[in-house]
From TrEMBL:
GO molecular function, one term: maltose binding
UniProt keyword list: Signal, Transport
Protein name: Sugar ABC transporter substrate-binding protein
Residues in the signal sequence: 1-19
High-level lineage: Bacteria, Thermotogati, Deinococcota, Deinococci, Deinococcales
Pfam families, alphabetized: SBP_bac_8 (PF13416)
Cellular component terms (Gene Ontology): ATP-binding cassette (ABC) transporter complex, substrate-binding subunit-containing
Assigned protein family: Belongs to the bacterial solute-binding protein 1 family.
Superkingdom of origin: Bacteria
Biological-process GO terms, alphabetical: maltodextrin transmembrane transport; maltose transport
Length: 399
């Protein structure tokens, strides 16, 4: 029996060696660095013969989601899909994403335990894991360093200081702060005061801290100290920031890569303003890598293997240097020492991971963000008071 088994084993090995690799289609929203994503896939494909990762850029997060939903309906979903943190809960609740809890439990402890707990939670719903972390960001305050230096001002640490600096700089028609109708940075504003926009599974869009935050933005806008902007006006806002019309912008740390290329000024980056010392936190931004329901086991294994490849410390260090995203695991941080030495402001920005929390995973929260953004616009343009705007948003969320 032993002698006859040897030829069979050799035959099986030879067959496996010549088998085509399992194709793993990866839909992502990393338009600005899609060349980097393609390079990672090529490197992974060259490192082994079992899987072939095929990355396909699908635009931004908001463009990718409906494409994935259509693919799920038609049975043509990819094996791996990148979803923004507020997008995956709805699909997970509907049973359209694979529960990855067992696969996470099987990961090497050195990897599983090295990822920041808050980062792990960004892909969890109801104690089950549906997403694997990769691109993680934190909110920051970007500013025109030359303007502050000329005025003898330091980068503000609190919202009170930010309003005071904006009051000082609001001359010659300049509106120092860009008051963007963006749910994520408003969420950070509320958290910086020790507040929240949800309570359990229920909305708290008009919580006292939310009203305080929006009242301040509305007050600054009415006084000519802030410039209201919608997300559709991002290009114009960047132009005004570059030409000195605005001094402060609240954004993702990942925006540093493009913002530093803007002409005519020196870019500064500071941690997000903390209004309530000891109680303020920051919401993590970014996306999670999910596996649609119905993906064959072999493709699932390939997707997880590629994710583990992306999570290697050296590769994460390269990713952080390319994108300015926060390293999601501790082992990558020492490999960034030289880069941080050249970019100390990013070290301080990334250090916010120590007080970061995941965004709400209530499935309805994605819809509530649109209500929040509408309320911001209504209040900062003077159409409604902050309280009235948030009360209206709360009433709509409660329906």
């Amino acid at each position: 029996m032993r002698a006859s088994a040897l030829p069979l084993t050799a035959l099986l090995l030879a067959t496996a060696a010549h088998a085509a690799p399992v194709r793993v289609e990866f839909w992502h929203a990393m338009s600005g660095v899609q060349g980097t994503v393609q390079a990672y896939a090529r490197d992974f494909n060259a490192s082994q013969t079992a899987y072939e990762i095929v990355p396909i850029n699908q635009g931004n997060y908001r463009e990718l989601l409906p494409k994935l939903q259509a693919a799920l309906r038609s049975g043509s979903a990819p094996a791996l899909a990148q979803l923004e943190f507020t997008q995956f809960p709805t699909l997970a609740q509907a049973g359209q994403l694979t529960d990855l809890s067992a696969r996470v439990d099987d990961l090497p402890g050195a990897l599983r335990g090295d990822i920041y707990p808050a980062v792990w939670k960004t892909g969890q719903l109801g104690e089950r894991t549906y997403g694997l972390p990769w691109n993680v960001s934190v909110p920051v305050l970007m500013y025109n360093a030359g303007t502050l230096k000329k005025a003898g001002l330091n980068a503000p640490d609190t919202w009170a200081q930010l309003e005071g600096a904006s009051r000082t700089l609001a001359t010659g028609g300049r509106r120092p702060l860009v008051a963007a109708a963006d749910a994520w940075t408003f969420e950070a504003n509320v958290l910086s005061r020790g507040g929240t926009l949800t309570g359990g599974e229920r909305p708290r869009l008009n919580s006292p801290d939310a009203v305080d935050a929006l009242t301040q933005l509305a007050r600054m806008s009415a006084a000519g100290q802030a410039q209201p902007r919608t997300l559709n006006e991002a290009t114009r806002a960047a132009f005004d920031f570059a030409r000195g019309q605005n001094t402060f912008v609240l954004a993702s740390v990942a925006n540093w890569i493009d913002a530093r290329k803007l002409p005519f000024f020196n870019l500064g980056v500071a941690p997000f303003p903390c209004e309530k010392e000891g109680a303020c936190t920051v919401p993590l931004g970014g996306a999670t890598l999910t596996i649609p329901k119905g993906t064959p086991a072999a493709e699932q294994a390939g997707a997880v293997a590629f994710w583990q490849y992306l999570m290697q410390p050296a590769r994460l260090a390269d990713w952080v240097k390319t994108t300015a995203y926060v390293p999601p695991r501790r082992a990558a941080v020492p490999l960034l020492d030289d880069w941080y030495a050249k970019n100390p402001q990013l070290r301080a920005a990334h250090a916010q991971i120590s007080r970061a929390v995941p965004r709400p995973t209530t499935p309805e929260y994605a819809a509530w963000t649109a209500l929040i953004e509408d309320a911001i616009t209504q209040a900062t343009t003077g159409k409604l008071s902050a309280k009235a705007a948030l009360d209206a948003a709360q009433a709509r969320a409660d329906r």
